[in-house]
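Tokens for chain A. Residues wanted.
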């Protein structure tokens, strides 16, 4: 069947398309690299005529034009599922807010709890011969948005890869308007550089704990990237992938023959992910690749699915932690800097997996705004800090000074083990605080 005629009937300009957005509307803006672009530019021009528009999106990899609208907070709010640098840098302007949630629940919220989108905007790959527009590398929750939105506008970008999977595309019959973006390529990021010496030291400890045949999840940041690089140079074999975010490290591991999916019980031989972010080389690798499955986040991040995979290895960063084993991975005190995302789901899934292990890592110290060295290991988390991973679910915690497994440990054992991986300059102070908190045994050696 030829869909050209229907395509041409629905084709319009960005300026005409956004005229359907009215004051008070809820507007979904897409996700990550496939966030609206030329539609965003058109809406930025229209926004001064509107008020109380509520926008939803997140994990921005490019600053939207609407963020530059004069007196933005008088016209709209931006409600983020996961804060990126582009979002947190403008929080002070009063129009950006965070939506706390486990990312895996987002499709449910879209169908059951949220105001349905009056208008949905998203970038997609060009239509195929069957009338489908691929969501590119961001299957995530996009079809759920389409199914509930009153008006769906797609922005076709020829540089977006066609990614294979489940619920990974929208049919032209579900689309109300089409615009074309031949102006800018989808945003990508340069490959991560060489890891720091500290990241490499932590990564070396983690790689020693990974068995052949393990299934990997890597989070964002330098340390997970360092793990990927070291795995590529190791003797590990027959690894699998089931991850929220697909990153460049997986491409390199695939090219080196480390990833086969041989021992994975579900989707054997397939690398499963909810969205991807990275270089142009990564996007080209994803394009029409039958070895990968881009799937909805409520499946990929489901704790039951994750825990059913033997030897599941989850590797993520943290901001700081306390002596109870509580982990904050998303805020600096009251300041939201990222989001909870799927970290807790993967921590719990790996915790419950047969042979599974979760690793949460950070440097032992950081410099505050006055240039003073501070410990990332605290007696208790700083006021306002979010507990991303509860003390009942954390396993391996790592810094450059060592690694400690919290699983099954009592409060005094946790205090002793966690202080043991703190920077030596802060250990006496932490011991003194642990004594005040009643979680330090007198028999412990200082």
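Reply:
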């Amino acid at each position: 069947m030829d869909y050209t005629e229907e395509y041409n009937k629905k084709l319009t300009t960005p300026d005409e398309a956004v005229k359907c957005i009215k004051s008070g509307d809820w507007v979904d803006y897409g996700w990550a690299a496939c966030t609206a672009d030329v539609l965003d530019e058109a809406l930025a021009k229209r926004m001064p005529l509107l008020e109380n528009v509520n926008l939803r999106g997140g994990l921005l990899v490019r600053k939207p034009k609407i963020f530059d609208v004069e007196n933005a907070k008088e016209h709209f709010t931006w409600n983020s599922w996961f804060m990126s640098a582009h979002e947190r840098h403008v929080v002070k302007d009063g129009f950006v807010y965070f939506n706390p949630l486990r990312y895996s629940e987002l499709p449910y919220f879209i169908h059951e709890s949220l105001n349905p989108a009056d208008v949905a905007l998203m970038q997609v790959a060009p239509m195929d011969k069957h009338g489908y527009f691929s969501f590119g590398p961001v299957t995530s929750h996009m079809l759920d948005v389409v199914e509930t939105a009153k008006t769906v506008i797609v922005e076709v970008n020829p540089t977006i890869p066609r990614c294979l999977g489940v619920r990974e595309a929208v049919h032209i019959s579900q689309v109300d308007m089409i615009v074309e973006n031949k102006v800018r390529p989808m945003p990508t990021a340069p490959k991560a550089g060489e890891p720091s010496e500290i990241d490499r030291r932590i990564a070396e400890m983690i790689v020693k704990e990974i068995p052949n045949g393990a299934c990997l999840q890597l989070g964002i940041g330098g340390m997970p990237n360092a793990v990927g690089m070291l795995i590529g140079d190791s003797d590990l074999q027959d690894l699998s992938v089931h991850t929220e975010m697909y990153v460049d490290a997986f491409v390199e591991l695939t090219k080196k023959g480390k990833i086969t999916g041989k021992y994975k019980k579900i989707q054997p031989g397939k690398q499963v992910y909810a969205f991807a972010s990275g270089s142009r080389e990564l996007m080209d690798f994803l394009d029409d690749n039958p070895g990968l499955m881009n799937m909805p986040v409520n499946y990929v991040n489901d704790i039951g699915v994750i825990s059913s995979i033997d030897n599941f290895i989850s590797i993520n960063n943290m901001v700081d932690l306390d002596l109870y084993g509580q982990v904050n991975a998303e805020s600096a005190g009251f300041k939201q800097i990222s989001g909870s995302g799927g970290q807790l789901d993967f921590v719990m899934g790996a915790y419950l997996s047969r042979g599974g292990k979760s690793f949460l890592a950070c440097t032992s110290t950081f410099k505050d705004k006055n240039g003073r060295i501070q410990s990332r290991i605290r007696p208790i988390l700083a006021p306002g800090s979010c507990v991303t991973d509860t003390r009942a679910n954390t396993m391996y915690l790592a810094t450059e000074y060592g690694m400690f497994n919290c699983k099954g440990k009592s409060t005094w054992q946790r205090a002793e083990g966690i202080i043991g991986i703190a920077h030596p300059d802060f250990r006496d102070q932490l011991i003194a605080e642990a004594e005040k908190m009643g979680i330090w045994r007198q028999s412990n050696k200082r």
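The mean pLDDT is 95. The longest helix spans residues 197-207.
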